Amino acid sequence: MTTPLIDARSLHVAYPQRGFRRQPIEIVHGVDFQIDAGETLGIVGESGSGKTTIGRAILGLAPVSGGSITFEGRDISHASGAQRRALAKDIQVVFQDPYSSLNPAMTIGRTLAEPLMVQGWDKAKATARVLELLDRVGLPKNAAARLPREFSGGQRQRVAIARALAPGPRLIICDEPVSGLDLSTQATVLDLFIEIQRDTGVAYMFISHDLAVIRHISHRVGVVFRGDIVEQGTCAEVTNNPQNPYTQRLLLAAPVANPQAQRARRLERQRLREEHENIYGGLAKLAERGIAKAVAHPR
Q: What's the CA gap between 6 and 32, in Å, rounded?
């Protein structure tokens, strides 16, 4: 068997609290997942579920308090600043809001060239690479001389994708990259991600609250609920035959055009929510008695 590109084992993430002797707040509770070269792992869950924290842990932006993350067999759980800078060539990120992640005072050409120049590229080579990247994401060459404010939301996200591709990464963490776009633009950007993966072999961790988006782009899916991965499998397994009530709720959250069918879906989703909350409420009471660890999550 080949070594996974990313291998997370019993990953815990906890943030320290202010105040004397206050215990850290644990956000991620011992999750396991792998990402192979050239594949997309979709991470899906509602806001506050901990899905973004998992991606930030891989990037070194969230504190790993337990377990491990390895990249091609190398432990990066507590990588130093110098090690993180070296890893930047292999692990990149595309954030949710492309405008806030772009410097409004810098031209697109300079934005794309800057990380290359930091890595030692000469100006002529970096300029040629910028033009290649703009073509790769479907933007005209004259975009290099323009500022971020001159582009639409979808075009800005293409710029963000180009910047992530600049150093030739092995893995890109995509944190809700299409959630702020209209549906038609979402489809175009998702197709761009798929095309780039097919041509370059880059792997993605694609984080989203929308199971329809995850289904469109992912090979495998991990469903996150309150800091745990409660269901994991191939995209077809998870989206066509979900076993966990929370995954079923996520599927029912997608709207349909028929009002009667939509009402039935809403009622079923409410029933599942109440059932799921009763189960986890019972686990919380058991946890207070110190015996919750003996009870597995419902599958």
A: 11
